[in-house]
Amino acid sequence: MAAAWDFRGRVAGSAFAGGLVRAADPTGLSVRRGVLAVLLALVLLLGGCGKGPWNDPYPEGRALSNTVYTSFDERPKHLDPVRSYSANEYAFLAQVYEPPLQYQLLLRPYQLVPLSASQVPVPRYFDAAGKPLPDDAPAAQIAYSDYLVQVRPGVRFQPHPAFARDGSGALRYHGLTAGELRGINRLADFPYTGTRELTAADFVHQIKRLAAPWLQSPIAGVMQEHIVGFKELGERLATAAKLDPIARVQALREARLDGVEVVDPTSFRIRINGKYPQFTYWLAMPFFAPMPWEAELFYAQPGMKERNIVLDWYPVGTGPFMLTENNPNLRMVLTRNPNFWGETFPTQGMPGDAEAGLLADAGRPMPFVDQAVFSLEKEDIPRWNKFVQGYYDSSGISSDAFDQAVRIGGDGGPSLTDEMQTKGIELITSVETSISYLGFNMLDPVVGGYSEPARLLRRAISIAVDYEEFISIFANGRGLIAQGPLPPGISGYRDGEGGINPYVYEWQDGRPVRRGIAEARALLEQAGYPGGRDPKTGRALSINYEAVATGPDDKSRLAWMRKQFEKLGIELVIRSTDYNRFQEKMRNGTGQVYMWGWNADYPDPENFFFLLYGPNGKVEHQGENASNYDNPEFNRLFDQMKFMEDGPERQALVDQMMTIARRDAPWLWGFYPKAFALHHQWLFNANPNKMANNTLKYRRLDPAVRERLRTEWNPPVLWPLWATLGIVLVLVLPALWMVRRRERSTAL
């Protein structure tokens, strides 16, 4: 057979020629295949460059979805509103459940407005004989108060299997057998769902659940003091705690709570012992959100708990969102509730809000987003990096990232760094409704008591401990000096010159200025400790500081505190312990000086002043008054103030109480923490409300802007690939050249 010669002068087209080449140099073919494989991989990799950032952590096709992306760092323990009492749980819970009331987003001081109720209930007062009393009746005459709650019409529960009915109208998934549960591992495995309209009975059922001993609600102790018959119901339900879950639900449905009754399908009444104006604030908490009996009975069925199909895992509400994915080790997903009743964005704000664009969505139906994806991030650095890259829409600022994000000006005001401003990131600061303070044990013979020398000692220390410096060093400037126990946003708070603590500050050039250390030393001498020395011993006055030390950062903080007392010549003895031991010392009153804090349950001065109310003393009454402060005049004014509605008369009492507390100085008032939050330019209505938890519904997105900027900020880094290609070519081409030479010589 004739053979053809290729242009390189070797045999081609015959089996003999092919066999000769393979036998002569098998390495050459493998080298070529390896090179081709590397080149093919590079081509395929580079071919994907035009599809967006390579490091996008979200599924393809979701770039333009109307979805908020954020993170969480601690798995929620309870999603049952009767048990939950934690901020990390409320981040999810408050978007699903709707209690009767909520806080208006923009108005300050914080104001209650209707949510699942159609109006804010106004209490009616009655005497012991059941006769109506006027609104201004003295609290001593009021035997009980009635709150009539009108349910908002047209509100429906989210789609849920608990409401699904069959053709005959019976509940489809009640009375399930083991066989019917086969193949069911999560809530979404039930093929049918249903819904129904909200009724007054749903609220009453939830309030009775608060009294159920097997549910261990954290507010049961508080409610038994106020709701008529609550304590008695809890005692009667003690026997039901021994029943199986279904029987317990039935017992709860049949139980009667004397102080709570259904008036008609659209209204219910709550009766409170005496007068308790702060009760309306409790109606804005998830504890009082409606609970359908169908859902509780559905979850109580045998086999559900083993599959983790329980109320603590799958909440059932009327809110704008429903929890559609609960994987706390990876991701939590809230999705728009298709049955939501159509709440609109508020139309009222504070002066300047309209100009700032905060009312741009006024009157529009909510929610504005379709979904919110919460990804688990246990470490600060990955969370921060994903925010900077645009993969999280908003973020807090950890201490490690603070300098990268914020700079503090000469006036102490924060501003964003150039890097953040270039990206169009916005900074929102707000003062928390909480206080961090240094307390004196008023039962202690050295730092406590109500004599003038004792007051002067506490005032001297109050001047010497420079909390401005503390905020700067340990809080990155995120704090506002406290002039008393009431933070901004709480009714009764005064700003400006009229709101300063005159014993520690002077008003100069339009701002408060801390009094000098020389004045503090003079006060200390008047207190009987010249130069900080105890006249009884001739040595430096020694004071014990009760500390909770849990990490390496505490060492520098405690050293700083010791230096503050050294300014006065006082020796501060650090007695560090764990939190349990610290609490024991507080209960026993064995400490002298300590640092603690308080977060508001509701925005009322009563919720802060009760921390200084004598009958709430921790040692004698096991209350929250850790300093054991007990001033009869302060107590008398507190008893008057706590029952009053906000107004000039109540403000006058608040001012008097503030004057007494500042004079006695049971606390070194410390500071109100500031929250610093960042959000990208494509996220709107991110302004904070420190009392409200149900704020996801107000958020609005521009996904197109987000996708464009994500792509700009995250271009593929191609130089490593090109470098790899260059290395491959440099290493392989000489080998190919040698192979080619050998092939040619062999063929010849």
Mind sketching the topology for me?
Elements: E1 4-5, E2 11-12, H1 15-24, H2 26-47, E3 67-72, H3 87-96, E4 101-103, E5 112-114, E6 124-126, E7 132-133, E8 144-150, H4 200-211, H5 220-226, H6 230-236, H7 245-254, E9 260-264, E10 267-273, H8 279-282, H9 293-299, E11 321-327, E12 331-336, E13 371-376, H10 380-388, E14 394-396, H11 402-405, E15 406-408, E16 414-416, H12 418-422, E17 426-431, E18 434-440, H13 452-464, H14 467-474, E19 479-481, E20 505-508, E21 511-514, H15 517-526, E22 542-548, H16 553-566, E23 571-577, H17 579-588, E24 593-599, H18 606-609, H19 618-621, H20 632-641, H21 648-664, E25 667-679, E26 683-684, E27 700-701, H22 703-713, H23 719-747
Helix pairs in contact: 2-23, 13-15, 20-21
